[in-house]
Description:
The chain crosses the membrane at residues 22-46, 67-98, 104-128, 137-158, 170-193, 205-225, 231-259, 271-291, 303-326. It is built from 15 helices and no strands.
Amino acid sequence: MHFLPPLTLHVFRFLLKSLPTLLLPIWILFDVSTAYMASQAAQFVWKSMKKSDEETKNIGKLVFNIYAFNPITIVSTGILSLTVFQNFCFAAIFLLFVTDRPSICAILIGSWSSFTIYPFTLIFCLVFRSNGSKLKFLSFVTLGLISWAAFFGLNFLLNGGNSNFVEPVYLSILFFCSLKFSSIQPNVGIYWYFFVQIFEHFRSFYTNSFVILYFFMPFPITCMIRKDPILHFTIIGLLASIFFPYPTLNQVSLIFAILPLLEVYRKHFRYTILIAGTIVTTIMLMPIMWHMWMVSSSGNANFFFGATIVYNVALINLVMDMIFVYSRRQIDLEYSDTLKKDTKMDFAFY
């Protein structure tokens, strides 16, 4: 399982000892702040698209409400889930990204990645803020790495000058199925059941394959989606949630909240109802399947795994549909003069 760095442990030890009655208000404050930053980012995006003031206010309210009144978000806040702080960081990065403050954005990405490595792929989004300059993009990457190193050093000092936290904090994420970290707890991710079932001598191969796949995917996505930073940011954030070894349902709550910003692609989406229905259905089935497996013993692990794998397949299909709609719209823009209403186009995305 994934462990927490020394800085996080020190902060929460202080909160538990000194301010135990303020824990829930602190979580609520962070959650409301996340919704507010997401709404401000949405309004800024709408203003840049020269929308009216009324439309700008409406999109801000919509994004705020989708996140703040999401049942998963409310429950996660009520149980004091750490994903509340992850969503806060994601919203802050998104706000800095759309308001064109890439240096601060890179520093925040590096800082967040010092707690869990996977968000560092968001650094690829800063390609859109480098104005085509490779040197400028590399400077953003360097800022992120320096920020990561600074927090790593702080964790090192707080741990008494001992680096024994590296393996449980970082390697437990990258090599979550290694022999040393073999306690793979059931979760809503796509990995746990797979690595429980495979033979032991295949674990290293599949572990390296999954890690390489995750950190390689941003390269082709960045090369393909070159003209829409918001869509690119959404896809990278969604992939970080899908391929995280120890995910929760709340990790995609903020991404769902900013989906209305992709309104320009709305007519091109093909499986909106199917994907939305699948996500809602599987989320409702997960606690039922868990109860049948762990409590009533009327089912087995396949019941819960079946719901989680269908949930993740729906998220992956959402990513594929986003890539499709981008390509479809680019064709409309580039060949609008030659295309007619009855023109039929076949795509080999599936």
